[in-house]
Write a structure and sequence with these properties.
10 strands
């Protein structure tokens, strides 16, 4: 990563699963720099004026994929509201660069909301990623406080557009954090909204406060509640659900793509 000057969300977001995932060859690359234009109350990624877009980044990312012999790759990014295309073109170029080097690699894109602009989502999906992931993050009541520059309904629209544009070939994925002060039935309502938007794959994990400057944890959710959420999601028809304290958006991403239950 250092040699090719690449960032990973594993490191920038201080993910608790870094050791496990990296030992299995699962890496979530973060493109477009390590400085975000949004300030979410839960996220450890720095908020600052972003650097200029590096046109060589897609090539270096593809080189890393080949060197590491990865079979399943997750590509995410900081929010780039400063760019005319909000970074959609960079996602498309990364997919193209990886596929040119190794067409067999499976690709999952975990994107910002792009303000639910259909043309930007279509631009990305025209390159043929296998999974389109956009996180809803929390229940509707808490969304404005947790993600002040985002919008609950807008995120659902992103997922709906991905399903509509991508068709049945594409798998649509989203994630929720719990322990932010949400009620159990609010979580179920969010699941129902996600299914109505066409979401196939769901991840549910415990919110952990990255620093004392971030939003406090309201509750450490008990294992039996995560089991309840898993059962609810299964009953609602999700093809795969990962639900547990340390689950994150990209955790066991390849297993989720295959529809295999976590051990």
């Amino acid at each position: 990563m250092s040699e090719l000057n690449l960032h990973t969300v594993c490191q920038e977001a201080r993910c608790p699963n870094l050791g496990e995932c990296w030992s299995h060859g699962n890496v979530s690359f973060m493109i477009l720099g390590d400085r975000c234009t949004r300030r979410c109350s839960f996220c450890a990624v720095a908020t600052a004026r972003p650097a200029a877009v590096d046109p060589e980044e897609p090539r270096r990312l593809a080189e890393a994929v080949v060197r590491l012999r990865l079979r399943y790759v997750v590509v995410t990014s900081v929010a780039r509201d400063d760019l005319p295309d909000e970074g959609a073109g960079a996602f498309a170029e990364c997919v193209r660069a990886i596929r040119q080097r190794d067409p067999s690699v499976l690709l999952e894109l975990l994107t910002p909301d792009f303000h639910a602009r259909p043309a930007l989502i279509e631009r990305i999906l025209s390159e043929g990623p296998d999974v389109y992931n956009h996180n809803l993050e929390t229940v509707e009541r808490l969304s404005r406080a947790v993600r002040p520059q985002a919008d609950y309904r807008r995120s659902l629209e992103v997922l709906r557009l991905a399903r509509e544009i991508g068709g049945d070939r594409l798998k649509v994925k989203s994630g929720l954090m719990v322990g932010l002060g949400e009620g159990r039935e609010e979580v179920r309502a969010a699941m129902e909204d996600l299914r109505a938007a066409g979401c196939d794959i769901l991840t549910i994990g415990q919110y952990l406060r990255p620093t004392l400057e971030h939003r406090p944890v309201s509750e450490f959710v008990a294992p039996e509640i995560f089991d309840l959420y898993r059962r609810w999601a299964s009953d609602l028809g999700f093809s795969f659900v990962a639900s547990g304290p340390y689950v994150r958006a990209s955790y066991n991403a390849f297993e989720a793509f295959q529809g295999e239950e976590n051990p």
